[in-house]
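Throughout our pipeline, every protein is held as a single compact record rather than as scattered files. Such a record has a labelled line for the sequence and another for the backbone structure tokens. This encoding replaces a full spatial description with a residue-level series of whole-number codes. For reference, a complete record is included directly beneath this paragraph.
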Amino acid sequence: MSFSAEVKDQLTRINTKKRCCNQVETAAFLRMSGNVLLGAGGKAGISANTTNAAIARRYYKLCKELWQLEAELLVHKNAKLKKNNIFTLRIPPQTAVQRLLDLFAQIPDGNPWSVSQKLPADGLPAAFQGECCRRAYLRGAFLGNGFINHPQRSYHLEMVCQDIYHAQFIMTLMSAYALQPKINQRKGQTVVYLKESEQISDFLNVIGAHHALLELENIRIYKDQINAANRRANCDEANTDKVVNTGVRQNQAIHFLQKKVGLEKLPPNLQEVAYLRLNHPETSLKELGTLADPPLSKSGMFHRLKKLEAIAEEYGYQDKTES
């Protein structure tokens, strides 16, 4: 089972007691994944598809018990999706469907399936003023046409909407929880998505997917630790390379002086440092300083070795290494 399917499976087990929350959650699911059926006498019905059996059962039950709708659950194979089962929740045209359409009409004003107006600037429709209902609507929207990538691969959560105005409505609901979703057009559909791990964690908390939230946080902490370890390892490797390259450069300068003028002609303090570097070519300046008599600080050792390089340059030495 994919991570996205696991999240949805957890959400279908949430037992919401409040009627208003169940109503808007059902509306969100059908608004995301459904289509209107027109029957005789102008009566409307609804048909919605999902590949998740638990989701299909949840909304079939809600339609029957909450809305008192005649409904049926159909299943067939889809060859394009590795022959997965496609579950169709079909609500035949009937008078009672109008109550659902009246709720859809608040998302926002206009035709419920081809909205022509944006959300009113003065706030959300009355049915979505309560925080519990906002959470329920976002949960239903995710169950209707949402997807979350496995956090071990990358951080990505999205909900595919049928039109731009419904996407804007969902973004408005999400903004109430300090979420900052982005929007994108893909194959004629509008996608609302989150890319940041913290934002995805907050969204999972909002819709009630707490087990998935904990799993995501554990993976995120593990990935952060791995990344930190890699950064430390890369830094250590870079420092080692720097020490080696510096030692090679200094050794070449000292060898040049040894052949050109002889190290015995150098001042005693520089002679000592020169022989220490020749005998310990890959030792760091700090460790090299502890070998001097008396010991030298890292800064003291650095300045004496720089002095040796300067003297070598005075006699014609040219550095051919990469600093």
User: Anything to note?
Assistant: The two ends are 53 Å apart (CA to CA). DSSP finds eleven helices and eight strands in the chain. Confidence is low (pLDDT under 50) at residues 109-123.
